[in-house]
Amino acid sequence: VCPKWAKLRKNHKEKKSVVMLVICSSALRSLELIKSMTAFKGDCRVLKLFAKHIKIKEQMNMLEKGVFHIGVGTPGRVKALVEQDGLCLNSTKYMVLDWNWRDQKLRRMMDIPEIKKETIDLLEMCIIKLCREGSVKLGLF
Q: From the record, what ranges are coiled-coil (predicted)?
């Protein structure tokens, strides 16, 4: 997915941004992915970007105070953080959509109307433009 990960991770010093953004359909799925990526992430910092038990102001404060390499969350929360200038996507290099994972009802993220709308809104808001400029690579997992 990202052959230059070690270099990108080491050179990333910007606050309010992440190098890789992973979008999942739910907070529980986000937590599952965070746990399963321990071998990949190495010594980088991962930030949870979902609404379950975490207020948006807390996440904005964390983004302002620290440097994070990977953000994993739901499209609704990521979109809200971008809209409120809590998360800047200009230094984001990779965006991964958790495309094929299915919930208990066998629905993928694009089968759930609310998640589909939030994801499309997020893509239209800024991601498609960044992809066209060549600064962000979009991947489906």
A: none
